[in-house]
Amino acid sequence: MGVEARLVAGMDGSADSADAAAWAADEAVLRRAQNLCLIRVIRGPAEEAEASAALAELAGRLRSRHPVLDISVRIPHGNPAEELVSASGDAQLTVVGPRRRSSLSAVLLGSVSTKVATHAHGPVVVVRGRPTAGPVVVGLDNSPQSRLALGFALDAAHRYGTGLVAVRVWPDVGYAPSVPTLNFEAIALREEAQRELSDGLHGRTEQYPDVAVRRSTPRGHPVAELVDVARDARLLVVGHRGRGGFAGLMLGSVAAGVLHHASCPVAVLRGGVAEEEEG
User: Fold this and answer.
1) pLDDT digits over 23-32, tens only?
2) pLDDT of 80 higher than 70
3) Where a domain ends, among 106, 128, 150?
4) What is the DSSP string of the chain?
5) 276 falls in which pLDDT band (50, 70, 90)?
6) What is the pTM of this model?
7) Least C-beta-crowded within 10 Å: which of 26, 68, 204, 241?
8) Which domain holds residue 156?
9) 128, 147, 166 — which closes off a domain?
């Protein structure tokens, strides 16, 4: 309740970040947010004039499209990921553009967008493309983080006037490459996934009677299956188990994987904040 109706969008001067700002403005209007704050973090005073002019021009374009939306700008100095994570503390939603894929080091160390998505104090959407049709897809595994993701996904589907696809991926757990899962084992795993998906949805979807829910329990790797199901989605929603400082980003996490491979906007709902504060 302490979070005001405010969205934050991280800018870096690229066309991708401008698209993210446009997506954020559309989302702010749908959410009836009070403010959209465009933030571009710079290294020092030498960059301030260019950043200020670019943000003013972008803000002007967005105001012309959404005259009722209050749009503000900020140009702090510092580390982009750290500044955006800090700004996420009083935001209803933080929006950033996609990660760059230009170098191996960027993949290994994690881009600004990935760091923000997996360490922010609230929901983050990484925008790739601006689809205006298609369902909302949510990945579920009965963890506390996926329960947060389900609530966010149902609310988004209701707001967009579209359906929801709830996905519970079950793995192929062969004993060795030469010993595949037996048929009766595969049937048991699939039925377990279906039961867990039903349990996760129980009592939640009834709150959104206007949202048609389709259930999907594919077999495979969570990242590959979620990306495939979401290929025509308007939004893909996943949870992430937070682990503290930036070094805590697990390179093999589902959130990091779908952020790198999905072709649609991805919302990340991060858990573990209370655990970190206690530990």
Assistant:
1) 999 999 999 9
2) yes
3) 128
4) --S-SEEEEEE-SSHHHHHHHHHHHHHHHHHT-SEEEEEE-BSSGGGHHHHHHHHHHHHHHHHHH-TTSEEEEE--BS-HHHHHHHHGGG-SEEEE-PPP-S-HHHHHH--HHHHHHHH-SS-EEE--S---SS-EEEE--SSHHHHHHHHHHHHHHHHHT--EEEE--B----SBTTBPPPHHHHHHHHHHHHHHHHHHHTTTGGG-TTS-EEEE--BS-HHHHHHHHGGG-SEEEEEEE--SSGGG--TT-HHHHHHHH-SS-EEEEEE-HHHHHH-
5) very low
6) 0.87
7) 68
8) 131-279
9) 128
Same domain membership, residue 135 and residue 123:
no
3 compared with 222, residue with greater pLDDT? 222
Q: Say yes or no: 104 and 135 in one domain.
A: no
